Amino acid sequence: MPYLSLYRKYRSQNFDEIVGQEHVTTTLRNAIERGRIAHAYLFSGPRGTGKTSAARIMAKCINCESGPTPTPCNTCPVCTAITKDKLFDVIEIDAASNRGIDDVRDLKEKVRVPPSQARRKVYIIDEVHMLTREAFNALLKTLEEPPGHVLFIMATTEPQKLPPTILSRCQRFDFRRLTDAEIAGHIRSLCSREGYSIDDGATDLIVKSADGSMRDSISILDQLVSFSDGAITAADATLMFGLVEKSEIITFMEAVFSADAQQAFELFQKFFDAGKSFSLFLRLIMELLRDIYLMRQGLNPPRDSYADAERDTLRARARALPRPTLVALMDEVARVEDRIRWEVYPRIILEILIIKMIDLAAGVDDADAARPAPAKSKAAAKPRPAPAAPEPEPANQPAPPDQEPAQANAEPAPEPDPEDPPEEKDPAQDGGFDAAWKSILQSIRKKNLPRYLVFADAAAHMPDENTIVLSYAPENRFKKESAQEKNYADLLRQAASEKFGRELRILFRIDRGGDDETPPHEAEERAVEPEPQPEEPEAQNLSLFEQINETFPNNKELS
Ligand SMILES: Nc1ncnc2c1ncn2[C@@H]1O[C@H](COP(=O)(O)OP(=O)(O)OP(=O)(O)O)[C@@H](O)[C@H]1O
Ligand SMILES: [Mg+2]
Ligand SMILES: [Zn+2]
Fold first, then answer.
1. Which of 304, 277, 307 is nearest to 292 (CA)?
2. How many Å apart are CA 404 and CA 192, to the nearest integer?
3. Residue 147: CB atoms within 10 Å
4. CA 122 to chain centroid
5. Last residue of a domain, one of 174, 191, 221
6. Contact of 435 with 374, CB cutoff 8 Å
7. Which segment of 115-129, 193-207, 413-427 scores lowest on mean pLDDT?
8. Most ligand 1 atoms within 8 A of CB, residue of 52, 60, 182 to mutate
């Protein structure tokens, strides 16, 4: 027998079986009982919450041979035909693929024809917001004067895209996201009906990944079933979905709380290499922070599934962390959580988040750490003594004594920094170099695209107020050489002096993670051009991880 996916097998066939939408099902039941069925309904709500299921149940309620009834029999020919999607008079239309006027015109014709087998024809129009404007207008005509033998049920995940004229002609029901408890309960019940065992950790992970969608939770369970042979465990779930385990998050956050940046970044690297889900990673951090917060207030975290030792660790944190710090941490994580799904470079954003969390936890000035001003960029950072021997693995380097870890790291590379939209303030004042550099690049871009492309590939920084250093990765050596050509370099110098209001030296280098490179034609550059001190340019092209190591070599001292 072919394996029937759980979510098909367990599609709700009765209002009773629809979990968590009582406000909808009760009203519909009552309407059927009282014979007051509207001619058009709109079921709106997130995906996988029961809209289509409810629409089909409604079709059965109306057409069941022992009906109309709020509890269809599910055994008569009409009910079974609807279950199998074979009843001629129940028509499901996917508006996403039948968007046009012709489809709706067609519908207008057919609507007039009375039902052949059933009491009432039921049109279920899924994703109705996808219809074109003309199609809406045609549909509207039908909705205005619907033949008595027709019921329309429209479903949409995006009701705000529907014209008000349509909305005003339907009775609307908003399906809601299912709660964690509802999903967990349903998952457990499906497992017991199927004879599977499932542990709490696995249920928990499914719930978290499903994000309020019952369908998603069931299809995750489906995959786990085939993966785990009857006994589903958190370990399976973790392995299969590349999820991060709670205990790993605790270890990670302990590293953050104790300002052990090296360990925090190593763990993050591990998650990243293992292809773990970023959004789940964030959600677990958020949950952990919330739990610590609750413990701090003397409350018990909901669904407390911590091991005793873990709970002790968290309690100790709860005592140690000031409330505003916790709130600021949650704020910061929530902000990142919000935007991470749209980000092209989620990794960089998460790395920046780690730095910010470390700063916040270490009590580095909140204002600076939470919203690092462009003013705190490298250009403004105090020049640091050069490390003795810059290496690609700078973990062992001595710590410069006068460092400002938060600021030095808040803007690690000229990657588009998500937290700092380019601010057009005087770049000469106290930093803002990243913003200034972006604007210099933009002005070059307007003048000459090829030259822009050559400069845009460099990591730029400003070791002192009269110098800009462009570092190229070794594989971009040819770009560096182009950049140094007079017509290129002049364009840059000119754009820079326009931006800063003074003449600047421009230096070019290849970044080899320590192997400094000074090509002979550096002399073509204006004036005396001592090669920049290696330490800053190194830092520019180090990965964030390496920079952290460099900046927090003995980072435990910060705690
Ligand atoms: N509220 C619920 N109670 C029980 N099962 C549900 C619920 N919502 C969804 N399901 C399960 O998920 C499957 C899909 O649900 P359904 O098609 O009704 O969702 P939907 O809201 O129409 O989603 P979409 O907007 O993606 O079309 C069902 O077969 C059922 O197994
Ligand atoms: Mg649906
Ligand atoms: Zn029936």
1. 304
2. 57
3. 13
4. 38
5. 174
6. yes
7. 413-427
8. 52
